Description:
By secondary structure, the chain is an alpha/beta fold. Among the domains are: 301-509, Rossmann fold; 545-663, Immunoglobulins (Immunoglobulin-like, Sandwich), CATH 2.60.40.10; 707-804, no CATH class.
Amino acid sequence: xxxxxxxxxxxxxxxxxxxxxxxxxxxxxxxxxxxxxxxxxxxxxxxxxxxxxxxxxxxxxxxxxxxxxxxxxxxxxxxxxxxxxxxxxxxxxxxxxxxxxxxxxxxxxxxxxxxxxxxxxxxxxxxxxxxxxxxxxxxxxxxxxxxxxxxxxxxxxxxxxxxxxxxxxxxxxxxxxxxxxxxxxxxxxxxxxxxxxxxxxxxxxxxxxxxxxxxxxxxxxxxxxxxxxxxxxxxxxxxxxxxxxxxxxxxxxxxxxxxxxxxxxxxxxxxxxxxxxxxxxxxxxxxxxxxxxxxxxxxxxxxxxxxxxxxxxxxxxxxxxxxxxxxxxxxxxxxxxxxxxxxxxxxxxxxxxxxxxxxxxxxxxxxxxxxxxxxxxxxxxxxxxxxxxxxxxxxxxxxxxxxxxxxxxxxxxxxxxxxxxxxxxxxxxxxxxxxxxxxxxxxxxxxxxxxxxxxxxxxxxxxxxxxxxxxxxxxxxxxxxxxxxxxxxxxxxxxxxxxxxxxxxxxxxxxxxxxxxxxxxxxxxxxxxxxxxxxxxxxxxxxxxxxxxxxxxxxxxxxxxxxxxxxxxxxxxxxxxxxxxxxxxxxxxxxxxxxxxxxxxxxxxxxxxxxxxxxxxxxxxxxxxxxxxxxxxxxxxxxxxxxxxxxxxxxxxxxxxxxxxxxxxxxxxxxxxxxxxxxxxxxxxxxxxxxxxxxxxxxxxxxxxxxxxxxxxxxxxxxxxxxxxxxxxxxxxxxxxxxxxxxxxxxxxxxxxxxxxxxxxxxxxxxxxxxxxxxxxxxxxxxxxxxxxxxxxxxxxxxxxxxxxxxxxxxxxxxxxxxxxxxxxxxxx
Length: 829
């Protein structure tokens, strides 16, 4: 341990208290020892440090910060340099705002387009997600700030997210849901990581030794701190045993007492506790012993947000080359999003931007003639005949209509999964009506995740901005007018129908288990292998110019090829390398992304592009040998502009690493064919390697069940409270904006009350509540009352013990650093 001589000065009570948060965002300081607190902040696409009292879901206003495009947007750039630039800006702003740990980026896999938080996640592909996350992390940590990638792991559902059990086979876990995190840790060198709310195969992620110890720390050599998601700890004694460090946000001394008791009865060793303290102490020393920058250039960062958006916007359609618009084009600007843009998602990631551009204002600075502006529709979905008539009137006289539409706030939010993939019908009705008076329509979409597009033929051009951040209006108009050539490509597949998605029958889970029966066939891996027609394939995106691919050379180090810009516009192309193996012994997708490169080429020029093979190019996880293996064979090396448009192809012979194979094709034929929408129990169990656990909600509720499960409560009062809470939730949804506090309470387990109330509620009181909910009213109420007084007494006693501990110089930690300066300087280098 790095700080063993210092840790020896700490009491067990101090160590235990040190491993939990003091408030909503700050860790516990120990004044006796001169140990300061460190401050955490949400920050996947901007810093959200609240000015006043902190709350998890951002209802209280935060300090102004740059709102960059969301991760789902920037992933469309496929540009690691851009990701690093954004990361550096985030790190600089974090320092200036006094933030030590930035809670992001989010790199959970987009298993289903319905996940309400997909706007915060990079991709359906772990390789792309990992590379982009690593770039953000390198940028953030170039300042004295820790990045904290999240949520580790297999967290792809918002509904009852704190009380779900992700049932997933080891190969799928490794290849799909952990590979992005592996890249983030090994290449991004993340110094913190956030554990997820859910269980993974029956064990909470924050207590899961397989995840946190065997994989994260032992295999990947992660040497940072593990932070729980807010309220995501079940038992921090078990968490510490597994390698978790910081329990957030504010469990009070109840958790600390559990750790002290575990030390006393021997269920937790002093060595395990000291190791956890040592890791966290290292973070505190690293983050707080260096002076931090106090300001940032708001205009410079706004310009970067604009650049990030322009590189990430995807041109999906451009019939008759309607775009870019010619100078002087008479334009009608229609759509509520043109006046009030939707530029970020809802939930804990909400940023208070330094400024926000609107298409309505920004278009005045471009060389087009604005002949009319109309909101056209109500974003909440109601019909408005007056607005519709106004929009149609101005559409008649325009050369081109720029129609701004997309998903409203209630469609995508933390704590809430979508019910469908449709854009509100009133927006589509208006689009179809506009088409009847003027077919020259440029559709501009605002949405953070995949949507159904049956109205695709209504638009002559479609520009998908995703959620563009505060400078999105300029970015969109830069592309519409040809100031910038679009280069974004989709980080996810756009299926024709929700029913086409591989997890359609499994997502979201109706019961406690979320069964990942589709296995490794997520996103394009499924559509491509099973020959399912899609609206727009993974990696798709158009340009104003044309690129020619030629001269592919494959050798044992990787590939080289030539890209030529055959058009009249300078532009960037994203070269994508896919790998596949025909007639494989181990089932696998037809092709998988294993490398990419974004390259800018002037009109008429050619460039040589190189993409190296790495340790992930040919590997698969073998559940028999329990390690990464390579199957012997002649592999297809495919290069193209998207997964469905392979332009160059060659093969390479690769030696295998084992003759021990994990599967028999005749026992799991659906997996070998890629037909995974309706996997039988028998096939899933063969891949899973065990019986499917019982996930039904039945019997008495316990502390780990969600509040919304009071539907099953034996207490009539509890069922009444469930109905009231459900009614409040539905009422907020009808208004078009999610009530995040209601959503959080609705989905959280009973135990979270003891983890987020600064010690006001103990786990004993929680057990009393659960007892009352289960119909034992008087017994439960008695337990709550007794628990309240007992907890209050124990809290005071614990506080007094901390305050009365023998005196030590309050600058003790600084003195220790000074005494160990040689080691300290070596660490900082």
